Amino acid sequence: MFKAIVIDKDPEGYRARLTELDEGRLPAGDVSVRVAYSTLNYKDGLAITGKSPVVRQFPMVPGIDLAGTVESSSHPRFRPGEQVLLNGWGVGESHWVGLAQKARLQGDWLIHLPEAFTPRQAMAIGTAGYTAMLCLIALERNGLEPGRGEVLVTGASGGVGSFAISLLSRLGYSVIAATGRPEEADYLKGLGASSIIERGELSQPGRPLAKERWVAAIDSVGSHTLANVCAGTAADGLVAACGLAQGMDFPASVAPFILRGVSLLGINSVTRPYHERVHAWERLAAEVDLAHLELITREVGLEQVPAVARELLDGKVRGRVVVNLNR
Predict the structure, then answer these.
(1) Are residues 71 and 150 in the same domain?
(2) What does the alpha-carbon distance between residue 327 and residue 325 come to, in Å, rounded to a whole number?
């Protein structure tokens, strides 16, 4: 038997609860993992609260991240006793994984845990830090270098935003942090933000083109915010879009793209090829400021997950939530 958060939907309603499951109920897969740590991401919050139709089949064990130890494997890349991690691949939507003490899954979804990190540190980074790094890599591949100008980060107090600020500042970029939580100013400056703007400047309908304010941006918000980010990007600037906290719509015009040559780079963190995932985690191992991890991270146990999921969607969670599966 093992503990897990299970989401169910039936005539009695939609609910997420902590329960015990028999190992025989685990789904098919070629690698079994004893999970040490998982995380709580925005998508997990949507799944657990039922505020968006994220879950595709019931019952479901949510959790899009995990780090743990291989217990058994028929996959050629992994052996029992090795430490592994997973980000994405639709787990927590159509396949049981992260928020449970045991998981059985496809080995092709896994990579080995980098030696630079403990399982807890890897989950403090999780999908949020991994996505921030994918954004940074995309910006670099398209010519971004320190010294070109300021880089905007939206959703700055969240997981992706926190890591984007930390990574960019560590590499020498001047970072503007956009947040709706002015009380987090000291936190954001502690991560390396040079200046802070109120998210209200970006979250309402704006003009097709605005004053050129930044040469690049990492946006995890979407909707009007992304439209205004593009409108305020300098000529030949770059915008990496990786989230939709405000919405999936994009109420913008083509003006920034054809009049200023702005490039909008879409970041898919869910189904990256194996070599890209390994490369991103190698970069994280080289660039993450370990001193920032504790500043960014809050640890909870499984029994706290449903309540913290509601806090996350209400915008009351700063940085990252690590779930200790043995707490």
Answers:
(1) no
(2) 6
d(CA 41, CA 322): 9
Q: Which residues pair with 15 in a beta bridge?
A: 8
pLDDT at site 294: 87
**Which distant-in-sequence residues (6+ apart) come within 8 Å of 44 by Cβ?**
62, 63, 64, 92, 98, 99, 309, 312
**pLDDT value of residue 90:** 85
pLDDT at 283 over 90: yes
CATH number for 178:
3.40.50.720
Q: Which residues span the domain enclosing 140? A: 127-266
pLDDT over 90 percentage in the chain: 89
Based on the domain organization, do 76 and 196 belong to the same domain? Answer: no
Q: pLDDT tens digits, residue range 136-172?
A: 999 999 999 999 999 999 999 999 999 999 999 999 9
Convert 142-161 to b/e letters by CB count within 10 Å (16 or more is b): eebeeebbbbbbbbbbbbbb
Bridge partners of residue 7, in order along the sequence: 16, 60
Whether residues 138 and 228 fall in one domain: yes
Question: Does residue 193 register a pLDDT over 90?
Answer: yes
Contact 180, 204 (CB under 8 A): no
In a domain, 119, yes or no: no
Same domain, 6 and 101: yes
Q: Rounded to whole angstroms, how far apart are CA atoms 91 and 262?
A: 34
Is residue 215 located within the same domain as residue 302?
no
